[in-house]
Amino acid sequence: MIDFVNTLDREAGTDALATPHQLAAWLVERRLLQAAGAPASKAELQRAIRLREALRALMLANNGGAADEHALDELEWTARWGDLGVHFAADGSVSLKPGADGLPGALAQLLVPVANAIGEGSWQRVKACRASDCRWAFYDRSRNRSCVWCEMAVCGNRTKVRAYRQRAPRERR
Fold this sequence. Notes:
The protein has helices at 2-5, 20-29, 42-61, 69-81, 102-109, 112-120, 152-167; strands at residues 8-9, 14-15, 84-88, 94-98, 126-128, 137-139.
């Protein structure tokens, strides 16, 4: 799910999901979609991008950003579209699996790790970088869950330099 959000690299100006073909290829590469299936449509591409940005918004909210009330609606819609459901096995295990085939099922499958992370309490560690020119998704591994940038050496440093320059007297500039 983090990889899915990071298909858009704002800093590099690249989008691995720029076309329906690229979306299908990305999903096939991760074994979420069968290669023999029908190619993604432009409408499905837009649906995937809305899901990606909804996940990014929720990750940003985990990092102190404003809550996006529509983000959860987008996840809910995707889960329903892909017929994501709970499945019980004879061995006593429980799993979440999409009932739909094709792209709806593939996008719903991306929500399984989100649901698992929420259930186990690790979702709050999944964040999007606070740097407005980055927004890269990452997992906060710090003991106190205090990471705010994807990389301190890059985004953290840029943010601190900008803040310093705004505070510094004009003659130092």
